[in-house]
Specification:
about 190 residues, Rossmann fold, about 45% helix, binds guanosine-5'-triphosphate, binds magnesium ion, GTP binding, Small_GTP-bd, GTPase activity, Small_GTPase
């Protein structure tokens, strides 16, 4: 069975969560900020590079406004990958992203967490984000939903991570089966 992996985007309002997901899923972009008030999701399949395999993703968009934080937490509980998005031209949105990271750490989230700096068409680098991700061994991607820069690379990385997880889980299953086989062998004698 081909498993579908859940990807959730978190982050402050107007950082471009919806825009990144729309770019990834439909290759579309709009200059209008359609403020999310609920949660929606898109489907996306990613063809792995140098492989026949296709990874199926569900991309969950969340509302960035503070008042929706508790609702947002319901959506990322069973996520495989969590994207924490901030805007490269807005340092306050990086602080909000760091807050989300701390919440996930406190909750012992076992999701793969990626910090995503969006709007790189406005500002290409963010030293504070680089320092934070280095100090916290956090994966970091810089993208522009507007131009599409970096989006494909981000989703290729996500799909590769899901693929590795799938392989790891499959080999873990083999390890669980082995003791039962051994036991029935002992009973036979
Ligand atoms: N320059 C630039 N603007 C962007 C980019 N991505 C999004 N925007 C703009 O930023 C604004 C907010 O984008 P959204 O994707 O709606 O932001 P959001 O994070 O989903 O916001 P909430 O739904 O309120 O949480 C819109 O006007 C977008 O057009 C980008 O890569 N570059
Ligand atoms: Mg949105």
């Amino acid at each position: 069975m081909n498993r579908v992996f859940k990807i959730v985007a978190l982050g402050a309002t107007a950082v471009g969560k919806s825009s990144i997901l729309l770019r990834a899923a439909c290759d579309q972009y709009s200059d209008v900020h359609k403020l999310n008030i609920g949660t929606v999701y898109y489907r996306k399949t990613v063809q792995l590079k140098n492989s026949e395999e296709v990874i199926k993703l569900e991309l969950w968009d969340t509302a960035g406004q503070e008042r929706y934080n508790s609702v947002t937490q319901l959506y990322y509980r069973n996520a495989t990958v969590i994207l924490i998005v901030f805007s490269m031209d807005d340092v306050k949105s990086l602080y909000k992203a760091i807050d989300w990271h701390n919440i996930l750490l406190e909750q012992n989230s076992d999701a793969i967490i990626i910090l995503v700096g969006n709007k790189s068409d406005m500002l290409l680098t963010c030293l504070q984000a680089e320092q934070y991700t280095l100090a916290n061994t956090l994966q970091y991607f810089v993208v522009s939903a507007k131009l599409g820069n970096g989006v494909e690379e981000l989703f290729q990385y996500i799909a590769q991570s899901c693929h590795k997880l799938k392989q790891h889980n499959q080999s873990a299953k083999v390890q669980i089966v082995a003791p039962y086989e051994q036991k029935s062998f002992c009973c036979f004698f």
